[in-house]
Amino acid sequence: xxxxxxxxxxxxxxxxxxxxxxxxxxxxxxxxxxxxxxxxxxxxxxxxxxxxxxxxxxxxxxxxxxxxxxxxxxxxxxxxxxxxxxxxxxxxxxxxxxxxxxxxxxxxxxxxxxxxxxxxxxxxxxxxxxxxxxxxxxxxxxxxxxxxxxxxxxxxxxxxxxxxxxxxxxxxxxxxxxx
Length: 179
Description:
Layout: E1 2-8, H1 12-15, E2 35-39, E3 42-49, E4 52-54, E5 61-63, E6 66-68, H2 70-82, E7 87-96, E8 99-106, E9 109-110, H3 111-117, E10 121-123, H4 132-148, H5 160-164
């Protein structure tokens, strides 16, 4: 799942990014990432969430005979979570899909765990070996979501990693070139 963090260019010195550094240079508190301009003094950087894989924005899930936009629901839920309190982003030093991986807390609560508990993400245990306590919490959150049949667990869905590779439910439209 992507998390968009908005960073003011005017505040780059407080982030540890050298304002006039050439590409690739940074001090010990900074990081490198792909960014895009929101406007003249605001940029956005995408982060991948450590240990959690959320439903992709365009993914559909099946409940009964029809599909529903579970990916959009996941995006909307994540957006609402971001408004619950201050957001803390701790970089792991690793990357996935060219984006920095981060541990994110919102109002002191683990964002990945909240997404999993709501049924909009699944844990990625293979990435949680370095953090067994988080792995247990994420597994418990998944069991709870499955037991309550919330989010994607209310019906059928394709695991996010398989969905990104092109696997779809029968109720999902195929791309132009798929048959």
